[in-house]
Amino acid sequence: MTLNLLNDCVVLSILAKDLIIGEVMNFNRAVIKVGSALVAPTKTGCSGQYTLAIAQFITKCQQQGKEVILVSSGGVAAGRSIIHHGSPKLSIAVKKAMSSVGQMKMMANWQRFFDIPCSQILITQSDLEDRKRFISIKETIQIQLDNGVLPIVNENDTLTSEDLTVGDNDNLAALVAQVCKADSLFILSDIDGVFTKDPKIHADAILIPEIDHITDEIYALAGTSRNHLATGGMKTKIQAAEKAVEHGINTYIINGTKSEVFASLLAHKNPGTRFAADKDIIKAKKHWLKHTLKSQGKITLDSGAVNALVNKGASLLPSGIKSIVQNFKAGDAVDLIDHQNNRFIAKGISLYSHSDLKRIMGKHSDEIATILGHNQSNVVVHRDDMVIL
User: Fold this and answer.
1) What pLDDT score does 223 carry?
2) For 125, phi and psi rounded to 5 degrees?
3) Which residues, 6+ apart, have CB-to-CB distance to 72 below 8 Å?
4) Which stretches of the chain drop beneath a pLDDT of 50?
5) pTM, rounded to two decimals
6) How far is CA 144 from CA 94, 283, 323, 354, in A?
7) How many CB atoms within 10 Å of residue 205?
8) What is the helix (H) or strand (E) element at residue 337, kind and residue range?
9) Region class of 377: left (phi > 0), else alpha (psi between -120 and 50), else beta
10) Which sign does the torsion angle of CA 105, 110, 115, 121 carry?
């Protein structure tokens, strides 16, 4: 791809962005990756300089019913001032020691901004490659989300045997997004996104707001990180984006040092670079839900629930259910019907049986445990397991 052609694509992307961005920014479950340059921007340890605005954004997302998993770098940077070292080039052993003590400081720094509890999940690449541990991570995060806990994930640097300067958390965030079945991945750093040139060198560099396909030319635009505390660069972020979009996850590279970008996100505007999810994967799943699974029952919904599902991309809550038809088990496919006109609007997988739903329909999610004696989930049909027809 020549530079002129690339610039033409950028112009077309900018013109098209406003037409589609409202839809793609309306996420339901997101992984937010925060780089060490934001967690510990100086050599003195953790700071609220940038993390406060990020925490406020996460809280507002949660208040809107969105689910968030945080992947945070910064353990090594946070512990840098505590572990003595005599060289700017740190040994792996020193980095492990810094990470071990820095994790405590990093978690304390995040927790002080939230009224809800936070959890710490330390994982490695090998944890994700092992099927049993993979499932364990998935179940743990799901249970925490169902109980209003913010999962905070980081690589277990104290146990890893490889050099930590590769930029693992960018790629780790993409893998976590796959595990959690997230629909969006936000990579926050101290850069605005992908440019046609290095903006720190070239004044005529143009931000690329939309990238539909990750090519060799896109990788050629990647520079290296100039922050000695950071472990990644633009290349690892593009690698992470490639992993995520192949699994149907929209991915964004955004400048987390600018508080105004979070207002843009909440307004469904893209302030950085968006890598479009692979539509073939999304269509394949919807095709499977629509054509392969046979519905075992019907759930009729009130107008509020219909609007939330069709227009807001929401999951189905028990409060929006009017009635239940036929017997079905948890895990069965069901038809979702508009109560007002008896119109078939969606199909999805129910997380509750018909008998349990009859007891909790019309109730708020926080009443489920009291009524049933257990809480399988705060939602009846998750958006990830639903196709709108």
Assistant:
1) 59
2) -60, -40
3) 33, 34, 39, 106, 110, 152, 153, 154, 169
4) 1-5, 8-23, 163-167, 225-231
5) 0.69
6) 32, 29, 29, 25
7) 15
8) strand 333-338
9) beta
10) negative
